[in-house]
Design goal:
Elements (H helix, E strand, L loop, with lengths): L1 E6 L1 H4 L7 H19 L5 E6 L13 H5 L4 H13 L2 E2 L4 H5 L10 E6 L25 H14 L4 H11 L3 E3 L2 H6 L7 H21 L5 H11 L4 E4 L11 E5 L5 E5 L3 E4 L10 H5 L4 E6 L10 E7 L3
Parallel strand pairs: 1-2, 1-4, 2-3, 5-11
Antiparallel strand pairs: 6-9, 7-8, 9-10, 10-11
Helix pairs in contact: 2-4, 6-7, 6-9
């Protein structure tokens, strides 16, 4: 899915409280974040307001003059964006913010790049939402923006897993995931992305800090903390364990059979999914089966064995 990220002079100007060194540090860091975003291979386009050419961003300096104060690689990044990106009709920040909202049937998702992060109120029980696209302050907020797009526009199962591999670097997806998730992308893509976001960003840290080695206690606490539909658990019936045991390659190139016994539970449809009569008449039980990770397999990343079916 194409994403347009607007560079507007009002969003790149110096915060009056910043010194020159502080501003240039932000500008340099932002430039490198832009490079990291572009090399990920997703369909991201940095589009600039026509007024950015001549706007004075800091002490009467334009973006070109500021670029001359950067290192050669960073300067090349800025010049590359400004010379290889199509212009758009100039608009105000407020006008562009109105475009940063999800709409059904959208073919392009839009947001802005802002140098100075604004403080916003957050809901502790809502780790990521999908109606208002994240403003990009750097690589981390770009990840959130792209995750929102993935939840709103999952496309094919192959596309979904390909993007997930980029956006959830702490997770390793078994090839089985592409098949298992296919029938669920029409009804719970937002919930799947929400769960994967919580797992990628927080699960191992939570596991290491919660003071227990009991998997059920860890999964229950994690589910409550991040507002998941139902408390996760491990499988209590040994005869079912072969259903979610998968082969992973270890660091020596050997195939290891891993039981992805812990699982998180999705018991609700996405809020924007239109339920059919048959949906209303049956219970809904989707699962994400995983393993907390092994140092010898995929660098210790969380191993995702299956997304969707209740094994």
């Amino acid at each position: 899915m194409r994403a347009n990220i607007l560079l507007h002079p009002d969003s790149l100007k110096r915060n009056p409280n910043d010194s020159e060194s502080e501003y240039m540090e932000k500008f340099s860091r932002f430039t490198n974040d832009v490079q990291d975003i572009l090399i990920n291979g997703l369909d991201d386009h940095f589009i600039f307001s026509t007024s950015l050419y001549s706007a004075q961003l800091f002490e009467a300096k334009t973006i070109f003059e500021l670029s001359e104060m950067l290192g050669r690689e960073e300067k090349d990044i800025i010049y590359g964006i400004l010379t290889n990106t199509a212009e758009i009709e100039d608009c105000s920040i407020g006008e562009y913010k109105n475009r940063c909202q999800y709409t059904k049937g959208e073919e392009v998702c839009s947001t802005m790049a802002i140098l100075n992060e604004e403080t916003t109120e957050t809901n502790d029980n809502e780790y990521i939402q999908f109606e208002n696209y994240e403003i990009v302050y750097g690589y981390g907020s770009w990840q959130t923006f792209r995750r929102q797009i993935l939840g709103n526009h999952p496309e094919s199962a192959s596309d979904f897993i390909s993007c997930a591999k980029i956006l959830f670097p702490s997770l390793f997806f078994h090839p089985n995931c592409e098949n298992s998730v296919a029938d669920y992308l029409n009804c719970i893509p937002r919930r799947i992305v929400y769960y994967l976001s919580c797992m990628n960003d927080n699960l191992i840290q939570y596991k290491n800090s919660c003071g227990t080695c009991q998997a059920n206690d860890i999964l229950e606490g994690f589910s409550v903390k991040y507002g998941l539909d139902k408390c996760g658990s491990i499988e209590m019936r040994p005869k079912h364990k072969p259903n979610f045991t998968y082969s992973f390659m270890d660091k020596n190139g050997n195939c290891q059979r891993v039981c992805c016994e812990p699982h998180l539970k999705i018991n609700k449809y996405d809020s924007n999914y239109s339920l059919s009569i048959s949906d209303r008449l049956k219970s809904f039980n989707a699962r994400i089966y995983f393993h907390f990770g092994s140092p010898d397999i995929q660098g210790g990343r969380i191993l995702i064995g299956s997304i969707g079916p209740h094994a």
